[in-house]
Structures are given as C-alpha cells and as structure tokens.
Task: inverse folding
C-alpha cells in the first residue's frame, strides 16, 4: 500500500497526463470500467491503443512499473497469507498428536520466556512408557483417537513449520528441546478465534503442564485435554460417565461442575430426607430405601472418583470431578471449552448436562432484598439444608407452586407441622394440586389428601405482590386474599440452562426450551446433550423436554452409549413417580398432560393399596431406589378410605390413560406399583385400542 | 366401548372418562392386543447378556462394578468366568479373581466386604441410580446373584 502511494506521489505529474490519455483511450475503445486507470494493474485495463512518441513511451514505462509493483504486492500478500494459513493448519493438526520433541526452526511467533521454565520441569517427567500422558499437551483438536500411548508417528503432515510440534518420546532428548517445545506450545494455545500471527504470549502454565507423576510439582495442574468431557455434575452426567466407562475400557472422563458436591440424586431432597429420623440428616444426607437399607444421596462415595490431576496418568482411566468451575465458553470448531478461571480444556467428545436453574416469580425478584432474603428457590443440597434450618426457626412457611416439587415439599413440611406447629401454606393458580398433570377429578382428590397432611392449600391463587412488613412477608393475591408468612419457597418451574448456546452455536428450542438435539441426543458432531437441558426427538412421542430423574438417568446413559459409538435413538421410555403422603403415590410414563383426554379405570381401594404397603410387600425393587420410607407414619396423617359409601369418589387405585388422537401416549399407575413394564409396552406399541378397559385388565389392579 | 358386567360403573367428566371396576369385572382375561416383541431389537435395553452372548457391561444390574476404579479387574475376572468352558465354571480364572479381590480391598468404602454378600450385591445397593435401572432388568439381577456367590465367596474368604 505504502509502496503504491509513494510511487504514485512520485509519478503524479506524469500520471495525470497519462491518465487523461488513458481515459481518452478507454473512452475511445468503448470500454469503461469506471475506474481511474492509474494505479490499476495492467491486466484490468482495456487495451488502449498506444500511440507513438515519447509520451507514450513514458506512459508505457509507468504502467509497466505500476503493474509490476502491483503484482509483486499481490504475490507477497498471498504468500504471507498462505504461510499464516499453513501455520494455522499445522497447529490444528499437530494437536492430537502425542509428542516427540523434534528440533525445529520454528518460525512461530513470540515465545514467552516464562514458559520455558515450566517445560523442562515437565518434560523429563514424561518418561513413563505406559502412561498416555501428554505433557504440556496443547489443546486437542477433533482427534478421533483418544489418549493413546506416546505415538511414534509425529503426524506432522509435512508442513515445514509443523515440526514445531512437541512430541514426547521416551528418549530423553527433551532437555535440549525446551525452546521448540515452548514455541509449539505457545502456538498450540491460542484463544478461540485468534489468528496465529497475533498470538499473545500467555504462558498459562497451569493449562499446559500435565500432572504425570506425583513427584513433580506439575501434579497440581489440571488436564488440558479430556477425551470425554461432561459439562455439569448431576444425574445425567453421572449416568453418562458410568455408561462411557462401561463401554470404553480405560476411558478417561472429566466432569466439570459449578457445584461443590459430587454427583447426587435429587428426588430424596424433597421426599425421603424430610422423613428421616436422624437429626444429623442434613450432614449425612442419608435416607432409607424401599428395602429398609440406608444409602447416601451421592451416587458414589468419593473413593470412586479420581482427582482431575491424576486423570491423564491413570492407567485404566477413571472418572474425575472438577468442582466449583463453570464452563463459560465453548469453541466447537476447536473442540475445547473455557472455564471461568480462564483454563482451557479440549475434548474429543463432550456432553452438555447443565440442567437448569429454578425460576422465580418476577414480582418477588423485584420486591427487594428483604423479600428475596426470605425466599428459597429449591433445587440443590444447599437449598435443602437452608430450608431445613428455616423450617425449624420460623412459624409459617408458604410454598408457591402446585406441581411436583411444590406439592412434595408441602407434604414434607406439612408432616413436620404436626410435630412443631409450623404453619404450612401452599398456593397456586390451578384448581388443585398437580393441576397440570392429573385430570381434574383426580387433582381435586389429591388436594384433599394434601390438606390432610397438614397443609393449608389455597387454590386459584395468583400472586399480585409480596412485601416485607415487620419482619414478615405479606403476600397479596389478585382476588384480594392476603397471606402473612415468614418464609416463601418458590417452586414455579425450571429454566433450562442454555448459557453455552451462544458461544457454541447450538440451537435452542423455542417451544420447550433447552438445547435442541436429535433422536440420538446429538447437537452437533462430538456434542451431546442429556437431562433437563435436552430438548430431544422422541421417536414415539415427538419432540419433548423432560425434567425427571429417571429421564436424566436414561438419557445420560444413552448419551454415554452414543458417545462411545452406539448410535441408538431414545427408545426406552423413562418414567417418573411422586408420593404425596402415605395415601397417594403414583408412577407415570410418557406424556401426562391434563389437557389431554383421559380414561381412568379404578378399583375400590383396600387398606393394602398405599405406597407404604407397597414398600413393605414388594420384593423386587422395580420402583426407584428412593421409594418412600417405610418408617412409621403418624396415625393422624394416615387416612385409609372407607370402602363402603363413597364408591364414586374413591380413587384408591387404578390406571389412567392419556390419549392423543386415540393413541395412548401417557399412563399413570395410581397407587398401583411394580407394573411399569406393562405400561411401557403399551406406550411403545402406540396402537389404537378400542376398549381401554380391556387394556386396563393387563394391569391386574385388584391384585397387589 | 363395551361395559363388562353389572358392577362396572362409568361416568364422564368433560373430556375425562372414569370407570369403576370390580374384581369380577376384570376376571376375564384381556383381549387387548399387544405387538409382538423382537428379542433382537437393537434399540431395546439389553439385559446382562447380549444376544450375541457377550456381556453387557452397561447393564444397570452391575451397578458401578464395571465403571469404578476396579472396573478393569472386574471385567477381566467376570469375562473369564463367563467364557470359561471348564466343568466347574470359572476354575481357571483364579489369577484374575485374585487381582480383582486385591483391587476391591483397596476401596473398602466403595466395596464393603460383607460376609454373605458378594461385592456385586453391595455395589447394587450403593450404586444403582434409579427406577430404570431395576425396571428393565429384574431377571438378570437374579442371574448375576446366583451365579457368583459360590465361586466368589469361597476363595475370597
């Protein structure tokens, strides 16, 4: 550019004269490409006739010089672009390769002097033939091979600069190679979209260095690459980790979660843990299962996992959990993520299982800090602990929301109210508990049962405002009712966490929320989504998003299978369950939406048909681990329906079918247990049944 | 639709139909038609043994055995046992079994050494994730329970 300009300035006078000449020529020739033909390479110009004479000679010389200059400039630019491109490609391709240090005249840009210090320290410790450690492993690209033992093929792809790849070999030539190792390392770690030319010398040694042996100082460093990276540390993630480990021998799985806890099950937080006799339950987090045995809500004790720093060196792989870190950025093209502390981790396969965060009512959020301080959004262990403490210290608690979580918490707290005198209020806009799930008659019946658990239920309640007065909360409803309480629990839904959608370029579903994935739970190559955050295509029931525990297990397991090459669609239908006190318990499967037409087939209930009885008699444990406890229930609370007079309104036990276009798409087993496989089969068949009473016969509802 | 029997009552509430049935109503066997199952359907959840005869390491009935820190040792031992053609099944796999036992002992928290229970038993208690785990595989659970206690507990103790 500058060259051109200086040349132009020098030749300006000459150019002017020649330009007019040229223009005339152009006009004459009938061609007008609309440009002043001065600084343009000769090729673009129309072939103006060249007259004779000295002027023309000068003109010709000028044009020639200019065009040559232009050509030279173009060639130089393209060459340097080419070079940059090649460097980039080489950098990309050399990443997967495990490392052997090669001497290289790397023309890579600035190498920070700081980094070399780390390298020699790290490098010599590499001499572990059996361990597939990648010292200072640059972030990996889409390498199909997982961490193989130090590969002997340099895999450099024949690019001149490519030899800058640090490859660790067993030979100790390492010590002489720090500079090239450094350079390539620097090269290998641009932030996502940075052109290599402008690579900043960010040492980030904590990312580079691998923990191989415990003896070296580098053992405190996190892995820079995880063959299987699972974002989120909940149920789906754990199920996937287990699936991956089962199918891929020696797999190395890294779970990154922003919670401080290891993966745990959520259902007991709103059920069993509240019914425990143990006063230390908030610390132990243990509960009694259906078979009387106690277990922790954690899927596995800490000894099951390995430390993230040891992941690379683990001979048989393992599952590592990285707590208190959030993934804030995802680079899909580069196959890597960035954490909130700027650490970068690359992956081969990635699962997004970020779940969601509880929704809140806007008017509570806007009501100010005093109100927010007295509001609990319930989802995690810490919420359970805090609500447990609150419920022991206040006189009145109000639950806003009439769905699963709200109703379960209401019943759990209601149970407590009989001992402590705690006032428990539940309010929601629907006409009855589980109003969006159960048909109206059943929802009403359930509401009565919830009331018997000691809960003051306010139906058709729309909150208009919440204010803090005299250390209490005043809730004003739209119909004029006013409720005074000490604490609020908001259970008004879950907002799926799709924070990474933007950076990763992933589609978000507008109908159901969550990341949109296909029937095999895949969002894009190498990226799967499972659990609450996944809006997936169910071959049988259509596109949906499911927020239940069993779905997290099933989808997590499926994602893990597909991450290890299975290519299976979502097929095994997940189920869910709920218990509301000792009289009401149900298991359900499929689409259970109260807006659908339903057919309910009920039997007269006997005293034997309650969740309590089911736990005592059932021996196969088909119901979940977190079945209701079988400890003694307060006689006040229990209420077996009298068989005699109220035949019509006694929905003790039965089966409810949900229909869509005459096909059964959902089934609730109402106080009928251990029959889920039959229900699953009916949904899977997807047939039109003329007489659902006949189908109901398959369930033997009169038996236990 | 047909109403079977005198005792059955039926009413409609809006779009929802409610039927009450007595035991007698449901005594006759159902004439509802179900689609025949394909035992080799690749989409279906598999039990412990796959159609080809291999072990399904991802079977929920195994709990965390195949995926935990002793997963490799467990897989080796169990595979050897499974494919063993000896008359007393598994008599040729002492080495793998011992290796597994040694590994299990390193993690007592994970694999509590109960007297009568095999390691698999306790892992089921501590590791199963939820209903779908047990839901789809009640039968294999039985198999794995009965096939192992003899061989595992005697050399181990």
Result:
């Amino acid at each position: 550019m500058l060259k051109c300009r200086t040349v132009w300035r020098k030749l300006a006078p000459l150019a002017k004269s020649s330009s007019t000449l040229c223009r005339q020529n152009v006009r004459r020739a009938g061609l007008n490409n609309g440009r002043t033909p001065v600084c343009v390479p000769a090729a673009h110009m129309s072939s103006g006739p060249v007259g004779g004479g000295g002027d023309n000679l000068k003109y010709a010389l000028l044009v020639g010089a200019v065009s040559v200059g232009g050509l030279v400039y173009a060639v130089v630019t393209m060459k340097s672009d080419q070079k940059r491109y090649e460097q980039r490609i080489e950098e990309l391709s050399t990443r997967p390769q495990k490392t052997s240090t090669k001497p290289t005249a790397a023309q890579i840009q600035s190498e920070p002097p700081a980094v070399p210090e780390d390298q020699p320290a790290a490098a010599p410790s590499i001499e572990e033939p059996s361990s597939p450690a990648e010292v200072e492993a640059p972030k990996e690209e889409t390498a199909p091979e997982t961490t193989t033992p130090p590969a002997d093929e340099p895999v450099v792809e024949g690019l001149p600069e490519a030899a800058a790849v640090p490859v660790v070999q067993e030979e100790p030539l390492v010590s002489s190679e720090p500079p090239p190792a450094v350079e390539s390392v620097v090269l290998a770690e641009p932030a996502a979209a940075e052109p290599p030319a402008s690579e900043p010398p960010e040492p980030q040694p904590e990312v580079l260095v691998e923990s191989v042996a415990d003896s070296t100082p580098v053992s405190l460093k996190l892995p820079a690459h995880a063959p299987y990276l699972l974002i989120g540390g909940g149920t789906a993630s754990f199920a996937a980790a287990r699936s991956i480990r089962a199918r891929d021998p020696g797999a190395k799985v890294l779970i990154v979660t922003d919670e401080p806890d290891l993966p745990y099950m959520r259902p007991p937080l709103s059920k069993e843990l509240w019914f425990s006799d143990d006063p230390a339950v908030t610390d132990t987090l243990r509960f009694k299962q259906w078979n009387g045995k106690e277990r922790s809500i954690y899927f596995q004790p800490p000894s099951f996992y390995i430390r993230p720093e040891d992941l690379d060196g683990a001979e048989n792989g393992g599952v590592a959990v990285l707590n208190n870190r959030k993934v804030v950025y995802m680079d899909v093209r580069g196959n890597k993520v960035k954490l909130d502390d700027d650490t970068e981790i690359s992956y081969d396969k990635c699962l997004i299982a970020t779940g969601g965060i509880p929704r809140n009512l806007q008017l509570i959020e806007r009501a100010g800090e005093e109100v927010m301080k007295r509001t609990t959004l319930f989802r995690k262990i810490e919420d359970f602990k805090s609500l447990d403490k609150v419920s022991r210290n206040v006189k009145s608690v109000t639950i806003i929301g009439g769905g699963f979580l709200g109703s379960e918490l209401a019943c759990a707290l209601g149970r407590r109210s009989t001992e402590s005198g705690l006032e428990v209020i539940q309010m929601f806009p629907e006409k009855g508990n589980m109003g969006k799930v159960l048909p109206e008659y059943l929802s009403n019946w359930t509401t009565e049962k919830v009331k018997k658990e000691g809960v003051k239920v306010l139906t058709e309640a729309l909150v208009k405002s919440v204010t803090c007065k005299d250390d209490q909360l005043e809730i004003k409803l739209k119909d004029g009712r006013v409720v005074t309480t000490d604490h609020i629990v908001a259970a008004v839904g879950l907002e799926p966490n799709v924070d990474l959608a933007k950076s990763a370029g992933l589609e978000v579903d507008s109908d159901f929320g969550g990341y949109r994935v296909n029937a095999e739970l895949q969002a894009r190559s190498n990226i799967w989504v499972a659990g609450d955050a996944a809006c997936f295509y169910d071959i049988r029931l259509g596109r949906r998003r499911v927020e239940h525990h069993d779905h997290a297990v099933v989808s997590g397991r499926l994602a893990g299978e597909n991450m290890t090459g299975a290519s299976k669609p979502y097929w095994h239908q997940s189920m869910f369950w709920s218990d509301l006190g000792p009289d009401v318990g149900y298991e359900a499967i499929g689409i259970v939406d109260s807006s659908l037409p339903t057919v309910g087939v009920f039997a007269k209930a006997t005293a034997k048909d309650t969740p309590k009885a089911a736990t005592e008699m059932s021996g196969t444990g088909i119901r979940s681990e977190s079945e209701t406890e079988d400890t003694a229930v307060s006689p006040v609370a229990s209420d077996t329906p009298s068989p005699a007079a109220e035949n019509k309104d006694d929905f003790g036990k039965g089966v409810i079918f949900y229909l869509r276009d005459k096909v059964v798409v959902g089934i609730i087993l109402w106080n009928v247990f251990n029959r889920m496989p039959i229900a699953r089969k009916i949904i899977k068949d997807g047939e039109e049944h003329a007489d659902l009473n006949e189908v109901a016969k398959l369930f033997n509802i009169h038996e236990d | 639709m047909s109403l079977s029997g005198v005792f059955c009552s039926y009413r409609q509430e809006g779009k929802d139909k409610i039927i009450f049935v007595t035991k007698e109503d449901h005594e006759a066997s159902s004439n509802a038609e179900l689609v025949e199952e394909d035992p080799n359907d690749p989409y279906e959840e598999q039990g412990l043994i796959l159609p080809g005869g291999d072990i399904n390491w991802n079977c929920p009935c195994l709990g965390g055995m195949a995926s935990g820190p002793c997963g490799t040792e467990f897989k080796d031992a169990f595979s050897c046992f499974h494919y063993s053609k000896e008359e007393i099944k598994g008599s040729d796999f002492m080495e793998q079994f011992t290796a597994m036992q040694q590994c299990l002992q390193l993690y007592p928290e994970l694999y509590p050494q109960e007297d009568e229970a095999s390691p698999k038993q306790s892992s089921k208690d501590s590791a199963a994730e939820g209903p779908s785990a047990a839901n789809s595989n009640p039968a294999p659970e039985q198999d794995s329970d009965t096939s192992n206690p003899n061989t595992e507990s005697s050399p181990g103790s």
Q: What stands out?
A: The mean pLDDT of chain A is 77. The longest helix of chain A spans residues 54-94. The longest strand of chain A covers residues 344-352.
